[in-house]
Design goal:
The complex is a heterodimer of chains A (306) and B (839). Chain A has 306 residues and is an alpha/beta fold. Chain A has two domains: 158 residues, Periplasmic binding protein-like II (D-Maltodextrin-Binding Protein, domain 2, 3-Layer(aba) Sandwich); 97 residues, D-Maltodextrin-Binding Protein, domain 2 (3-Layer(aba) Sandwich), CATH 3.40.190.10. The radius of gyration of chain A is 31 Å and the shape is elongated. Among the domains of chain B are: 101 residues, Serine Threonine Protein Phosphatase 5, Tetratricopeptide repeat (Alpha Horseshoe); 82 residues. In chain B, helix 13 packs antiparallel against helix 14, helix 25 packs antiparallel against helix 26 and helix 28 runs antiparallel to helix 29. The chains are: A alpha/beta (306), B mainly alpha (839).
Chain lengths: 306, 839
């Protein structure tokens, strides 16, 4: 964390220096923020990704781009509020919590996947139902909205997380797993990909597929940003950005905030009615085209003789 | 045309004359009456006395005395006739005695003037008839002899024999047989010993009548108890020939000619058999032997025929001329010379020769006929017609003249006249086979010309007449073809059904039968005919034509895929290719329609693309139908705007292949597909005002589909009131519709009538799998019973088909995982265990 702070400070100094540079000599400097508390577990990895992405974006946008990597949602959120961040790559659930401040531009996919599954893990055996009243370590976001993500998205509306668990906020996946190890919580919610395989951790529940990381615009430059995504290309560990199509993100936002719609009975569909040739066409009018039989009238050259 | 004169042999004539002499006397005596006697009567009486003496001398064998007495009698009768020129008795006496002296001409000269005043007088008719017969003036002799014969008097017995001989000569078998039978009935017992001769003649008469059984019986009677007679054996040979047993006839004659090397007639017959069989060297050997036996006209005629068969027309001419030297004016010889000249290409000479023969008094029908035909063959049709017209005038009661004229007109392609000629021939001789045959052929020629000139109806009329005359497969084919061309399909079928079974019928008749059946709406029978046609030929072209026909039948039978396969792999025939090309687009359009009946828009589109590539030729109706079908395919594929445009264009102007309400129905269908229920219903109502045959069922199905579609749209938008109304309307059409009942329960559930809904779903679950899905939803959403929900959804997923399977699987697994609900252990138990649990 100390290291990160130092880099952050250095980045700020650099940003100030550049901002102080005479206007017009170069385009205004932009900042790309990275908050991937549940997608990239390792802080160093997040930092390196932020640096690499900033460099690529800078080349593509033909303007200097600085990187800011955030370890906690409140730091990230504050920086956004302060207008210090122009674009950001964030966990999708966090992007929802940013609300209208963030405009989704593209999904950051890994191994061709823009979605991931989540898991409720525990050191104990049993079902999720058995964990009633137990502590669940959960990566912290805006706070009150966090359990909604769990209830509505991860649990599909079939279980109310806030009522069932004692939600215990943690800054990131690493800390959630550490909390479980230290018996600070009976269960933790982490992306399935980050469940440690060697340790004595059991997966009690696997969620459906949930959007992963998303690139958002925070300064109304979504179109410009979208325009250079091709040039930016892949930045490890992610693949090339994939544009957010149609209402994908909005549907996700509604799912997080409002939960899944109530299930309604489904009508049985009768087979479609098709045409009936005889009903539409008088087929006797479409009889075969007969060949000419004129040749069969031929006569022989035989002559009568006596 | 060839006629061999059967003149009575000298031996037989002599015996007949003896008979005549024996029988001629008594009637004259019977006419004696007492005075008063005129000079003439007195002379007659004296003449009679001399005649009696002559007869007695003749009977006692004293020829000299007999002749002397006859002359005396004749002189007395002639004096009597001079004294009274009209005296019947005197004339009869002259006739009897002159005949006795074989002075035939005198009889004719003296008796003819008298009989003119006494036409029915048998005592005159008898000697005059005999005299004319002896002078070979048959046309005059026959009526007189028939008069005498009709009296059945034993006095005139000999005329039966003469008449029979004449009738045999004239080839009139019936008349000859009748006379010979009368003779046998009337002849006195003492003449019975010569009956064998009569039986032989009777056998010949039966041969002419083609009555083989009677002929054989007569010949066998002639031969019975007598040494082998070559002439009877010849008769038996001709019976065998008549029965078609030519080899046996030949063997018989070979035996006879060996045993009787001097018998001419069997030799001639045998040679003719050889000639007919093409065994010219054997025929030549017999002919040469025959000539050696005696240089008769028949022998040289035969040798001439042999030479002609040896292609030595010049030598043949030599032989034929010898015939004429031996028997000048012999018609057969004259015709033979003409023939030999023609064979040498000397047409003009042939004509001149026959013209000369005709001029020099050979006033024979045959000669004239031949002269005309020689002219025809030489290309001088005008002269041929002139000469044959004369033949017709000479023998108005024979078909011959008309037949010859028909042939002349046929040769020049004057079908109208040829047809008239042959028809006239049949009026004279209704059973004339040649006239029938060539009338039919002339009609076929004219029919072809008329068809070529676009006069199909006239052509059909000719061929109907031709087929009536000539019931052959070939003629049936012509008539069938013309009827097919005029689209008179039922009649075409009738004709071809018969034609295809006539002897000599080929694959082609079967093919036409197939088309006639197909066009008259019997595709199954058509397919059978086409299959038969294919089997009746080995020719790849013909097989291709049969296969294409079969394909057209298959289309009508709904075997469209097989048909398309056949039509796209036609084979070598150009004709078959043409038929396939003319039909393939239509067949593909029909298949596209069939595809749409099962909702396969892609396959339909593929067929329509194939139609585009092939083109529809000169069939604008088909182009419109293809467009119409494309419209339906677009509607099926959800491309509604394109569908509407295509359907509108396809049905403008109105098409013959469309029902009056097709447009409204097609529009209703597109609107249904689009989900515009109200508008669809309006079109459907318009179309239903006057439903066409076969439509009501589909109209009702469409009404139900619209109700269901309206219900599901209303349900999706939350309008339960409308959904309920629509479902109830659907249920009114079919109260047993489980799907509709199920969906109505969904509406009930939404309206809070959950208990009813649950009961309905539980009842319908076996028939409607979605009911299990909905039971699960109720359990989880309303009653919060995850275990029950998981169970219901497991049942739904087990069926494996239905909406939202992936989502339901996720729901189920999530509930299982959250609640620790594992799969029931029973899901893996063997079937036997389950069976025990459910008694």
């Amino acid at each position: 964390m100390m290291k990160a702070h130092r880099f952050l400070l250095a980045g700020l100094v650099l940003a100030c220096t550049l901002a102080a540079a005479p206007a017009g000599a170069a385009a205004k400097k932009a900042t790309v923020g990275v908050f991937l508390a549940t997608t990239l577990t390792d802080g160093q990895e997040r930092f390196q990704y932020a640096e690499a992405l900033a460099a690529k974006l800078g080349e593509s946008l033909d303007r200097p781009v600085a990187a800011k990597s955030f370890g906690r949602y409140e730091d990230f959120s504050r920086a956004v509020s302060d207008g210090l961040v122009d674009f950001a790559v964030v966990d999708a659930w966090a992007a929802v919590q940013l609300g209208s401040r963030a405009t989704p531009v593209a999904w950051a996919s890994r191994s061709g996947e823009t979605q991931q599954r989540w898991a409720i893990v525990s050191t104990q055996k049993g079902a999720v139902k058995d964990l009633a009243g137990k502590r669940l370590a959960l990566v912290k976001g805006a706070g009150p909205a966090d359990p909604k993500f769990v209830t509505h998205v991860v649990l599909g509306g079939d279980l109310d997380a806030q009522r069932h668990f004692k939600v215990t906020p943690v800054p990131n996946v690493e800390s959630a797993l550490k909390m479980l190890e230290a018996k600070g919580a009976e269960a933790a919610l982490v992306p399935l990909a980050h469940v440690p395989k060697d340790k004595d951790v059991r997966v009690l529940f696997r969620s459906g597929r949930v959007p992963g990381a998303v690139l958002v615009d925070l300064r109304g430059n979504a179109d410009a940003l979208a325009g250079v995504l091709g040039a930016v290309g892949a930045v490890a560990p992610f693949d090339t950005f994939a544009r957010v199509q149609g209402r994908d993100f909005e549907d996700f936002r509604r799912l997080v905030t409002q939960g899944p719609p109530r299930r309604q009975p489904v009508l049985a569909e009768a087979s479609e009615l098709h045409v009936d040739t005889a009903v539409l066409v008088r087929s006797e009018e479409l009889g075969p085209a007969l060949p000419s039989f004129a040749g069969d009238l031929a006569v022989s050259a035989e002559q009568p003789d006596d | 045309m060839r006629r061999i004169p059967h003149t009575p042999s000298p031996r037989r004539l002599a015996s007949a004359l003896a008979l005549l002499a024996t029988l001629a006397g008594p009637p004259a005596l019977a006419q004696y009456r007492p005075p008063p006697m005129s000079e003439s009567q007195r002379l007659v009486k004296e003449g009679e006395t001399a005649q009696v003496a002559a007869s007695a001398a003749s009977a006692s064998g004293d020829k000299k005395e007999a002749e002397e007495k006859y002359r005396k009698a004749l002189a007395l009768y002639e004096q009597a006739l001079v004294a009274e020129p009209g005296s019947v008795a005197a004339a009869a006496g002259v006739g009897a005695t002159a005949n006795g002296l074989q002075d035939w001409q005198r009889t004719v000269d003296r008796v003819q003037p008298v009989i003119a005043a006494h036409p029915g007088e048998l005592s005159l008719a008898y000697p005059l008839g005999v005299a004319l017969y002896k002078l070979r003036r048959f046309p005059e002799a026959v009526p007189l002899m028939e008069q005498a014969a009709a009296s059945d008097s034993p006095d005139y017995l000999i005329v039966h024999y003469y008449l029979a001989s004449y009738y045999l000569y004239a080839q009139q078998g019936d008349a000859a047989a009748k006379r010979l039978q009368r003779y046998l009935a009337l002849r006195p017992e003492k003449l019975a010993t010569n009956d064998f001769q009569i039986h032989e003649l009777l056998g010949r008469a039966h041969v002419l009548r083609q009555d083989v059984a009677s002929a054989r019986a007569s010949f066998q009677q002639a031969q019975a108890g007598r040494p082998e007679s070559p002439s009877v054996q010849l008769g038996l040979a001709s019976v065998l020939e008549l029965e078609g047993r030519v080899p046996e006839a030949r063997t018989l004659l070979e035996g006879v000619t060996t045993r009787f090397p001097q018998a001419a007639e069997p030799k001639e017959k045998l040679a003719r058999i050889y000639l007919a069989a093409g065994e010219v060297p054997r025929a030549e050997a017999q002919a040469l032997a025959l000539v050696k036996l005696g240089a008769t006209p028949a022998a040289h005629l035969l040798l001439g025929d042999v030479r002609l068969a040896q292609k030595n027309a010049a030598a043949a001419e030599g032989e034929y001329r010898k015939v004429l030297q031996l028997q000048p004016g012999l018609v057969l010889g004259q015709m033979a010379v003409g023939k030999a000249l023609q064979a040498q290409g000397r047409h003009e000479e042939a004509i001149q020769f026959l013209e000369g023969a005709v001029r020099s008094g050979g006033n024979s029908l045959e000669l004239w006929a031949n002269l005309g035909s020689v002219n025809r063959r030489a290309g001088r049709f005008q002269r041929a017609v002139e000469v044959h017209r004369r033949v017709q005038e000479m023998a108005p009661r024979l078909a011959l003249g008309w037949v010859l004229l028909g042939a002349d007109h046929f040769a020049t392609g004057q079908w109208d006249q040829a047809i008239e000629d042959y028809a006239s021939a049949l009026q004279v001789e209704p059973d004339h086979a040649g006239a029938k045959q060539w009338l039919a052929r002339a009609l076929a020629h004219r029919a072809r010309d008329r068809a070529g000139a676009g006069r199909m109806d006239d052509s059909v009329r000719d061929l109907r007449r031709a087929y009536d005359l000539d019931r052959t497969a070939l003629m049936a084919r012509r008539l069938g073809a013309a009827l097919l061309e005029t689209r008179a399909f039922p009649e075409a079928r009738k004709v071809m059904e018969q034609g295809a079974t006539l002897p000599g019928a080929t694959w082609r008749e079967a093919l036409l039968l197939g088309y006639a059946r197909l066009a008259s709406g019997d595709a199954q029978a058509a397919l059978e005919a086409f299959t038969r046609a294919g089997k009746q030929t080995e020719e790849p072209d013909a097989q291709a034509e049969a296969s294409v026909g079969a394909a057209l039948a298959e289309v009508e039978l709904g075997q469209v895929d097989a048909a398309v396969q056949r039509l796209t792999e036609v084979g070598p025939s150009k004709a078959a290719e043409g038929v396939a090309a003319a039909n393939l687009p239509r067949v593909l359009v029909r298949r596209a329609l069939a595809r749409l009946e099962s909702g396969d828009a892609d396959a339909a589109e593929k067929d329509l693309e194939a139609v585009d590539r092939l083109g529809v030729g000169k069939r604008p109706d088909l182009a419109k139908l293809a467009l119409f079908t494309r419209g339906l395919a677009r509607a099926e594929a959800g491309r509604h705007a394109e569908a509407s445009a295509a359907l509108k264009k396809a049905l403008t102007p109105a098409q013959k292949w469309a029902w009056p309400n097709t447009r409204a129905l097609a529009d209703a269908f597109v609107l249904y597909k689009k989900g515009q229920v109200g508008a669809a219903r309006k079109q459907l109502a318009a179309a239903s005002k006057k439903p066409m045959p076969g439509q009501p069922k589909w109209l009702s199905a469409m009404t139900g589909a619209l109700h269901r579609r309206e219900a599901s749209l209303a349900y999706a938008s939350g309008n339960m009131k409308l959904a309920e109304k629509a479902l109830k309307a659907a249920l009114a059409l079919d109260a047993e519709d489980a799907l509709v009942q199920h969906n109505l329960a969904c509406v009930d559930w939404r309206k809070g009538k959950t208990a009813d809904a649950l009961a309905t779903w539980r009842r319908l679950e076996p028939a409607v799998p979605v009911a299990a899905l909905n039971l699960g939803i109720d359990a989880q959403e309303r009653r919060h019973e995850p275990a029950e929900a998981v169970d219901a959804w497991r049942r739904y997923l087990a069926v494996g088909s239905g909406p939202r399977l992936a989502q339901v699987r996720e729901w189920k697994e999530r509930l299982q995982s959250l609640n620790g609900l594992a799969e029931p252990a029973g899901s893996a138990t063997p079937a036997a265990a389950t069976a025990e649990e459910t008694p």
